[in-house]
Amino acid sequence: MDQEKLRLLTRPFNDIKSRPGRNGQSISYVEAHSIVQRLNDALAGDWSFRMLEHDVREGEVIVLAELRTGEVVKQAFGGSEVTRTREGKVVSLADDLKSAATDALKKAATLMGVALQLHGVEEPPVTPSAPRLVPPVQDGDEPDVPPGNRLTRRQAEFIGKLARERGMAKGEIDALARERHGTAANFLSVKQASEFIKQLQDAA
Question: Model-level pTM?
Answer without folding.
Answer: 0.57
